[in-house]
């Protein structure tokens, strides 16, 4: 009996000491913004040194021909859903067109349902208002911003799980620190960490210690169209990429310290081609283009003890493949109602791909569709390129390969008919208010329609505010849908100089009306002294946050409208954001 009890005790002891998630690897996905394939020293660029990313490649697996979309939000949607972005309703980078349809299942939901703790820190860009918000799409914790780009990278206005907060220092360092804290807090349970960084997207801002290395640097490598390259912009982008590399090193070090490297899969990739004309392996195209240079991204994956160090995979792959790949590697059964377009890359990663069939990857943006097989690219003008012998896309070989050319033309027509046709840019998708998955709804100037004299501070709306509100005829409206009837507390983010205070504003939605007065001054200067390259976007500033009252909103659709009923000065205010909190 004593022996039996001793055996039972030893069994329980071993059971308790054994980590229950050892068969469930942690996942860390690092996604950069506007970083080209060529912005890494491991890809041959001698203008830059990225030792931490290079080490990731040396100790992990590199995909030589990996493809994403031509711009930001479509790539994010494809990574998260395993489906082409047109299927999920993503057609734009703003105006609500960046949102994924609500019947899509995300990577975060798949892993959360499998027992993972999930977090996203950075640029979301797939919907702001719940249920499009990251907290509604499977992420337990979110810190960052939901727009397409941000106007200031040093301690900016951000959000944490829907609450407006102030960032801490340089934005990428801040996002990384949140990730390090998350890893530390969840080291004893399986986690999924998504780090969608927002650099080197403009504005071109980076801590001085990185810029000092580049501002007087003599570049050695240039774009194939050197006469079109702005070397100052190139240097700024490379300095920002070096900051990314430093932060990748921080993540790798944390995993080493916590002895998590053997149970963590790390992925590193970008969301599109470079955001300027700079060296990119002499490929044709940059961000926004569906040519090779606009859609080819680095992809490095490391899982110590499971992937062969230094292995290079030549087979073509895509962002749509990441969800099925990670799910299979983690041994997770996906409960997804929509069929995936991606396939699992596990056989390539685990050296057991005895037979790998050729496939076609489709790159679509702005009506331009390009097809990539292992050997060929059919571009949006229906020119055929032999990518094995002419990776720079100089020579149309459609006459040399008539059979392959016709096959790709047919595939292109079929994809346009059967896949691209699913996209409905005129679908009725108002901005939702009052979804129970978050405690408040943000309605930023980005999503507003301004009429009359009102102007937008930025030609790209993502990080903009509205100004020149000079008339009682001017309106700011949101195409909205209240999901739950009730009383809502209203908070306003605005600026107004002392000499302009006193305007009366009417906020209305269908029959509901709230009137309030702008009776407190707050005048903030534009943050226009931190860029290392002149920006194309408008500058941003700080705004006053003020509770202006409560309004009862009935469930239903309508226009949420703000209109001044009295303007004593020359302008009512500059508007940035309104928050609606159900009480």
Keywords:
Jelly Rolls, alpha+beta, 583 residues, globular, Alkaline Phosphatase, subunit A, six-stranded mixed β-sheet, 2 domains
Notes on the structure:
It is a single chain. With 583 residues, the protein is α+β, with helices and mostly antiparallel strands. The protein folds into 2 domains: 27-361, Alkaline Phosphatase, subunit A (3-Layer(aba) Sandwich), CATH 3.40.720.10; 431-582, Galactose-binding domain-like (Jelly Rolls, Sandwich), CATH 2.60.120. 21% of the residues lie in helices and 27% in strands. The chain has 11 helices and 27 strands. The protein has helices spanning 2-17, 51-59, 72-81, 107-113, 171-185, 208-211, 231-257, 292-295, 322-329, 346-349, 402-418, and strands at 26-33, 61-67, 117-123, 141-145, 157-160, 163-166, 191-200, 264-270, 296-302, 311-313, 317-318, 361-365, 368-372, 376-378, 384-386, 431-433, 440-444, 449-451, 455-456, 466-467, 475-482, 486-495, 504-509, 512-517, 544-553, 556-566, 574-582. Strands 1, 2, 3, 4, 5, 6, 7, 8, 9, 10 and 11 form an 11-stranded mixed β-sheet that branches. Strands 16, 18, 21, 23, 24 and 26 form a 6-stranded mixed β-sheet that branches. A 4-stranded antiparallel β-sheet has the order 12-13-14-15, with helices on one face. Strand 14 (376-378) and strand 15 (384-386) form a beta hairpin. Residues 4-21 have low confidence and may be disordered.
């Amino acid at each position: 009996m004593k022996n039996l009890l001793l055996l039972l005790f030893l069994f329980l002891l071993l059971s308790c000491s054994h980590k229950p998630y050892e068969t469930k690897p942690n996942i860390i996905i690092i996604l950069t913004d506007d970083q080209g394939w060529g912005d890494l020293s491991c890809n041959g660029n001698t203008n830059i040194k990225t030792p931490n990313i290079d080490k990731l490649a040396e100790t992990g697996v590199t995909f030589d021909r990996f493809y994403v979309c031509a711009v930001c939000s479509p790539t994010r949607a494809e990574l998260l859903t395993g489906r082409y972005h047109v299927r999920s309703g993503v057609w734009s980078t703003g105006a609500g067109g960046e949102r994924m349809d609500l019947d899509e299942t995300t990577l975060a939901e798949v892993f959360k349902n499998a027992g993972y703790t999930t977090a996203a820190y950075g640029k979301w860009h797939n919907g702001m208002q719940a249920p499009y918000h990251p907290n509604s799409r499977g992420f337990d914790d979110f810190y960052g911003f939901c727009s397409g780009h941000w106007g200031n990278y040093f301690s900016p206005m951000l959000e944490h799980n829907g609450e407006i907060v102030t960032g801490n220092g340089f934005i990428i360092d801040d996002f990384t620190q949140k990730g390090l804290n998350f890893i530390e807090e969840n080291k004893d349970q399986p986690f999924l960490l998504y780090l969608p960084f927002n650099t080197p997207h403009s504005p071109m801002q980076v801590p001085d210690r990185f810029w000092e290395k580049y501002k007087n640097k003599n570049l050695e490598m240039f774009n194939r169209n050197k006469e079109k390259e702005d070397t100052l912009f190139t240097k700024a982008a490379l300095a920002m990429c070096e900051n990314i590399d430093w932060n990748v090193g921080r993540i790798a070090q944390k995993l080493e310290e916590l002895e998590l490297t053997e149970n963590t899969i790390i992925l590193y990739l970008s969301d599109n081609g470079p955001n300027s004309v700079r060296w990119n392996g002499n490929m044709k195209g940059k961000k926004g283009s569906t040519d090779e240079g606009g859609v080819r991204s680095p992809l490095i994956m490391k899982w110590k003890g499971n992937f062969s160090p230094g292995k290079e995979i030549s087979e073509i792959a895509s962002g749509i493949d990441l969800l099925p790949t990670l799910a299979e590697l983690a041994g997770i059964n996906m409960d997804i109602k929509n069929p995936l377009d991606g396939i699992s890359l596990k056989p390539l990663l685990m050296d057991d791909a005895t037979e790998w069939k050729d496939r076609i990857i489709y790159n679509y943006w702005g009506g331009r569709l390009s097809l990539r097989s292992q050997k060929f690219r059919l571009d949006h003008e229906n020119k055929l390129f032999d990518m094995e012998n002419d990776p720079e896309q100089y020579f149309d070989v459609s006459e040399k390969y008539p059979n392959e050319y016709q096959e790709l033309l047919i595939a292109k027509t079929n994809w346009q008919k059967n896949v691209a046709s699913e996209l409905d840019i005129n679908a009725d998708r108002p901005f939702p208010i009052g979804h129970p998955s978050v405690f408040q709804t943000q309605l930023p100037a980005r999503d507003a329609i301004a009429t009359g004299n009102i102007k937008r501070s930025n030609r790209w709306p993502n990080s903009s505010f509205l100004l020149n509100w000079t008339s009682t005829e001017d309106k700011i409206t949101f195409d909205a849908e209240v999901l739950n009837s009730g009383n809502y507390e209203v908070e306003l983010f605005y600026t107004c100089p002392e000499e302009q205070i006193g305007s009366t504003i009417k906020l209305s939605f269908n029959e509901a009306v709230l009137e309030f007065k702008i009776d407190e001054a707050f005048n903030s200067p534009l943050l226009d002294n931190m860029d290392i390259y002149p920006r194309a976007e408008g500058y941003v500033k700080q705004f006053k946050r003020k509770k202006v009252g409560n309004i009862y909103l009935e469930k239903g659709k309508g226009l949420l409208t703000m209109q001044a009923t009295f303007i004593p000065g020359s302008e009512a205010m500059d508007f940035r954001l309104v928050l609606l909190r159900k009480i």
